[in-house]
Amino acid sequence: MLVFEVALDIIGANPYVPVPETILLELFVQAGKHKGPIPICGTINGKPFLQTLVRYQGDWRLYINETMLLKSPQRIGEIVHITISYDPNDRSVLPHPEFIAALDENPAAKLVFNQLSTSRKKEIIRYIAALKSEESVSRNVKRAIRFLLGQERFIGREPL
Questions:
Q1: Which residue in 2, 34, 70, 96 has its CB near the most CB atoms, within 10 A?
Q2: Among residues 135, 133, 136, 157, which one has the least CA distance to residue 146?
Q3: What does the DSSP assignment read for 87-156?
Q4: Cα 10 from Cα 23, distance rounded (Å)
């Protein structure tokens, strides 16, 4: 684990900490890359987290959400203790079988889905995968198909 202390900062409404250059270089070695999002794990003030290190406006930032640090937007300027390392674990979320079946039954929706950006596909898959009841899954799979066909809003987005 790599360790550093740094003041919590904010861009817009997003609290973050800048990651020191020496820590970044070690993370790049651990990850085997220096571009694209880098999955990480660690602790903030002793509380474990999973997060993704991203580059924004030329700088690498570790965004700190309220799950990681309670009331983080109100704590700007506070010095936080961070431990961090590359997380090699697969974080893929598999599509719900009902969603896969619905896409297979609707070639037009499947074609649109396959043409979406990777991030938009993940957004739909994760949303459906996080639903608790089978009733919610069924209802939202139908909505997702209608969204892909341009017929209704879904997860806060206008129809395609």
A1: 96
A2: 157
A3: --S----PPPHHHHHHHHH-HHHHHHHHHS-HHHHHHHHHHHHT--SHHHHHHHHHHHHHHHTTSS-BTT
A4: 20
pTM flag (> 0.70): no
- Type of residue at 131: L
pLDDT tens track for 123-138? 999 999 999 999 999 9
The DSSP line for 13-79 is TEEEEEPPHHHHHHHHHHHT-SSS-EEEEEEETTEEEEEEEEEETTEEEEE--TTTSTTGGGGTT-E
